[in-house]
Every structure is written in structure tokens, then in C-alpha cells.
Design brief:
The chain has 481 residues and is of the alpha+beta class. It has twelve helices and eleven strands. The strands form three sheets. Strands 6, 7, 8, 9 and 10 form a five-stranded antiparallel β-sheet that branches. The radius of gyration is 32 Å and the shape is extended.
């Protein structure tokens, strides 16, 4: 077998391979002989057909199979011989593959770069310091009250924050349309959870009143029959309900899964949950600094093929979050170029550290991570079994744990100092699952520079998306950089 390698550009390589025609013919001959021993051909007893007839009947098919098998085996041998590590699947360019000729082809691919990780002892990391105070717990309990408002019917005009219960019938050009009728529809004024025209249309209404409003459906509405069109909705106002906050009592505690111990037990669980989430936020901020420094201090050329894979995945993930339904709705590529390149570079750098330092997945941490994920659902044992039965799910957890071990390895060698600078506050996220199951996927972050700490919850979206993706195939109600 003859092999030659040439550089095309950067990490690009062109590997040309020639397998002698005699080797191809010998393999074809051997396979045809095996077939001839059992072949059933019309006019001949099984295994008794002349070899020439067998060759005529099966020769072309066998030759194609041999070419495919020799191509795979010779490529693997050539790559090993030349000590090349393709970053992705090579593109095969046939040169000569016909019967009686040498098998010649070219494999075009990118190689993985030579990676040398700079010593992390120059990395400086600030670890934020914060604590959960009693006023923070008070504020969170108030937030929990707002999550479960009480609505009471009133005999007055509807105003902001009221809930209005309506029936409606819709018409476009005077005709009913699919989905144009609703009963006992809840509209909370000022929340922007309903169409703006609907919220505005029920403002000032009283129970028993009828109104007609015009609404315009979005051009991207999933129902093509109404997309971009204007409809008239005939509303019947059934009830106007005033919103108030519930008392913090035994019933309120039970609504949040605290069955015993009353308000004090609830506050204890709230504090524990906030402290867990604060620790998660701090770990996340430290991890981000470590990865930023690792990426900054170790510039490298990365295979374009790997960048393309990550770029497409980022586009798809974003499109899904936006509710896109087909490839034509993918967002532009440009904003994802640098994040995709960063992902690839960090993956290669962390893989090099794992290999060079002989790091192995910590099984105890894997089990701990699995228990933490499962505990955030009402049926943790069922969820745990679902993960254990999915190799892909467990690989995701193992990968996340190994990444954490790499970050820990860097932190052991980096300069880490404490910082009292405030953490940025982020958007709220609510939950009504039991605290005892660590179900609140929320983070509370410091928003003032004074000794008092103010907190607001933030959805841990990446892990939650991973969990949903992992368990979608089961009937049971995620890990990243």
C-alpha cells in the first residue's frame, strides 16, 4: 500500500492511498469462492453452479463490497502509519476504483492541533463572598406569596392586577374560525400574558358586560389561517376578581411542600434553598473566570469542521428556544462564530489536561450529581432509574463531572482571592415544588454593596434543558461550560 500526505492549508491535510490491484482481486476472488459453495442459482443445485456463472451473477456486487471494506481498513492503516489524528470524518475523493485497477483515493481532513497548555499558576481568580441574611429570607417569602395570589370576586370595574374571567367568540370577515372560541379564559390585567388587545379590552369591564374588540394575530402565528389577520372577538365578562396576597400560615406552608413545622420550618427550607443556589452561583462565577483564563492564555488554531458542528448546534438550540419549526427559521450564523470557536478550543484544552494529568471520572461525584438532579423532581427514584438506563444521559453527567474536576485542578494551582464585589442580579424564576427535594432551580445574587443582601431568583436554564432533553423519551418528569 502506498501512502502520501500533503498539507492543504492550516490544519488541512490530503492523504492519498493506493491499494494494489492484486490485493483487490484476491479479496474479490476469495469472497466469490465462499459464495459459490452455497449459491442457489436457477438451473443448478445449491453450491454446484460454475464459478464463471457465480462471478457473472455476483461479481459486481462483491467488488463494490470489497472496495468499501478495503477503503475503510486501508484508511485506518494509513492514518496510523502516518500518525495523523483527524478532527472529523475525512471526505473521500475517488481517484481509481474500477475492476482490474489499483484502488486509489484521497482522504481530505483536518488534523487536531498540537496542544500545549500553559501552566495555570499565572491565573488569578476572584471568588465572590456573600451570605443569606434574615431580610433576604423575608424578601423571598414575600416573593413566594406573590407567586400564589388569592383572587376574590368583586362588584366593580376591572383594573390593573385584577383577574377577569371571560368567554369569547371570534370572527374573521364575519365568519367563525378554528380556535376562535373560548370558555372561562383567565386574563390578568397588566401581566402581558394575554394578547395586548385582550388585556386592554377587559380593562374597566364589569361582570355581566359584553364587549367587542379587534385583535391582530402575529404574522408568524402557528395557525396559518389566522396569521397576520385581524379578527373581532365578542367578549362576555363572567367575573372580575381582585388579587391579594395569601397569609403565611400552615396552609401556605403546605402549598410549598412543608407539611410539618409550620412557618419556621418553611423559613429554614427557604434559607437552605437560597444557600444552595448562592453556592451554585459562586461556583459558576469562579468556573467562568477559570475557563475565560484558560481560553485567553492558550490561543490555538482549531479545526474548522469542529467549529461548524458547534455553530450549527448553537443555531439549532437557539431556534428551538425561539419556537422555530424548520431550518429556514435558523438565526444568522455570525453571532455564534466566536462562542462555537471557544467551545471547541476549551474542549481540546480540557481534554489535553485530562490526558496529561491522568484524570479519571470521580464516580462518587457522578452519583452525587445524579442524586442532585433526581432530587429536583417529585419522583426522584423514578427519575434516577431513567438516567441510569440511558447511556447518553449518564455520559452527559460524567462529562460535566470531569469538566468540574479539570476546573478544580486549575484552581488548585491558580491564585484565588476572595472578593466582596456585588454579583449581578438576574431575571426571576418561580417554582412550587417541595424544598425538601431541592426543586427550586433558582439563584439569588447580591445586588447591593452594603452589608444587607437583596436576592432575586434566576433559572438554571442549562441544566434544566439538559434534564428535559434527557428524560423526554421516558414518561418521567441537564450538565455544561
Amino acid at each position: 500500500m502506498q501512502v502520501s500526505v500533503s498539507a492543504t492549508s492550516g490544519l488541512g491535510r490530503r492523504l492519498e492511498v493506493a491499494v494494489p490491484a492484486t490485493e483487490v482481486a484476491s479479496e474479490v476472488e476469495q469472497r466469490l469462492k465462499r459464495i459459490s459453495r452455497t449459491a442457489r442459482l436457477k438451473g443448478f443445485r445449491p453450491g454446484k453452479a460454475p464459478f464463471a456463472v457465480v462471478r457473472k451473477q455476483f461479481g459486481e456486487q462483491v467488488h463494490a463490497e470489497v472496495i468499501g471494506d478495503l477503503l475503510r481498513s486501508s484508511l485506518a492503516q494509513a492514518l496510523s502509519q502516518e500518525n495523523r489524528r483527524p478532527a472529523g470524518g475525512p471526505r473521500i475523493e475517488p481517484i481509481a476504483m474500477g475492476p482490474g485497477a489499483d484502488l486509489k483515493y484521497a482522504a481530505v481532513f483536518e488534523v487536531l492541533p498540537e496542544i500545549k497548555v500553559k501552566s495555570p499558576d499565572t491565573i488569578r481568580v476572584e471568588r465572590p463572598t456573600a451570605e443569606v441574611s434574615e431580610p433576604d429570607v423575608d424578601a423571598m417569602v414575600e416573593s413566594m406569596r406573590r407567586q400564589r395570589p388569592v383572587f376574590t370576586a368583586v362588584e366593580r370595574e376591572a383594573r390593573d392586577s385584577d383577574r377577569v374571567m371571560v368567554d369569547y367568540e371570534g370572527r374573521i370577515d364575519g365568519k367563525p374560525f378554528e380556535g376562535g372560541e373560548g370558555r372561562d379564559i383567565s386574563v390578568i390585567i397588566g401581566t402581558r400574558q394575554s394578547m395586548p388587545e385582550l388585556e386592554e379590552g377587559v380593562k374597566g369591564a364589569r361582570a355581566g358586560e359584553n364587549r367587542t374588540i379587534s385583535v391582530t394575530f402575529a404574522a408568524e402565528h402557528p395557525n396559518k389561517a389566522v396569521a397576520g389577520r385581524t379578527a373581532e372577538l365578542h367578549l362576555t365578562i363572567k367575573r372580575v376578581e381582585e388579587q391579594s396576597l395569601p397569609a403565611v400560615d400552615e396552609e401556605f406552608c403546605r402549598a410549598y411542600g412543608v407539611e410539618e413545622g409550620g412557618v419556621e420550618a418553611l423559613r429554614v427550607e427557604v434559607r437552605k434553598s437560597m444557600e444552595r443556589e448562592l453556592a451554585d452561583v459562586i461556583r459558576g462565577r469562579v468556573r467562568t473566570q477559570v475557563l475565560d483564563a484558560l481560553y485567553r492564555d492558550n490561543p490555538m488554531e482549531v479545526p474548522r469542521s469542529l467549529v461548524e458542528e458547534q455553530l450549527q448546534q448553537l443555531q439549532i438550540d437557539t431556534a428551538r428556544r425561539m419556537g422555530a419549526r424548520d431550518a429556514s427559521q435558523l438565526p444568522p450564523r455570525e453571532p455564534f462564530e466566536e462562542p462555537a470557536r471557544r467551545r471547541v478550543a476549551l474542549g481540546l484544552l480540557m481534554g489535553q489536561i485530562v490526558q496529561a494529568e491522568g484524570l479519571k471520572v470521580d464516580r462518587e461525584r457522578v452519583q452525587s450529581r445524579l442524586s442532585e438532579l433526581a432530587a429536583s423532581y417529585p419522583n426522584p427514584e423514578e427519575v434516577r432509574r431513567a438516567y441510569l438506563q440511558s447511556q447518553d444521559a449518564m455520559r452527559q453527567i460524567e462529562s460535566a463531572v470531569l469538566e468540574d474536576q479539570v476546573v478544580d485542578w486549575i484552581l488548585e494551582r491558580a491564585h484565588v482571592s476572595s472578593s466582596s464585589r456585588p454579583l449581578e442580579a438576574s431575571a426571576p424564576m418561580t417554582s412550587t415544588r417541595a424544598f425538601s427535594r431541592n426543586a427550586w432551580c433558582s439563584s439569588w445574587v447580591r445586588s447591593t454593596t452594603t452589608s444587607r443582601t437583596s436576592w432575586s431568583p434566576r433559572c438554571c436554564s442549562s441544566s434544566r434543558r439538559t434534564r428535559r432533553r434527557t428524560l423526554r423519551s421516558t414518561s418521567t418528569p441537564r450538565a455544561g461550560s
